[in-house]
Design goal:
Layout: H1 3-15, E1 22-27, E2 31-33, H2 44-53, H3 58-65, E3 71-76, E4 79-87, E5 90-97, H4 103-122
Antiparallel strand pairs: 1-2, 1-5, 3-4, 4-5
Helix pairs in contact: 1-4
């Protein structure tokens, strides 16, 4: 199994969580990787917008990462988007309903990030 397939499997496992509506990994070294089964979001236009515009955040991320930036949160209508950074060039993006208790989701995001970092580290 190649690196992208392994990462895709991690994303698919994250998407199995009830509250995770969509997720992807994006970055300079990885490109954009999405789960094989897509998204649970009903608003596919919003999902396409998130995927197509995620790279626009990286100039800001690079500036603030050296000061300890770990995550960005923003609300889009009924959803909250969490950008969690593996490094200054790579982000795990997760979409959840805006009124969800983030506790368990945050733990699973960290577990997924750790696994993805291991996969990327093996492939260097």
């Amino acid at each position: 199994m190649g690196r992208n397939e392994e990462i895709r499997k991690v994303l698919e496992d994250l998407l199995k969580m009830e509250d995770v509506q969509a997720c992807l990994l994006t970055g300079r070294q990885t490109g954009t990787i999405t789960p094989g089964r897509g998204t649970k979001l009903k608003n596919l236009v919003l999902w396409k917008l998130i995927m197509d515009s995620s790279h626009k955040f990286f100039p800001v991320i690079e500036d603030f990462y050296v000061y300890g930036l770990k995550r960005l949160y923003f609300e889009l209508g009924d959803y909250e988007v969490i950008m969690s950074f593996l490094d200054q060039f790579t982000a795990l993006i997760v979409v959840i309903p805006s009124l969800v208790n983030r506790g368990l989701v945050e733990v699973e995001i960290e577990n997924s990030k750790r696994t993805i970092k291991e996969i990327i580290g093996r492939q260097k």
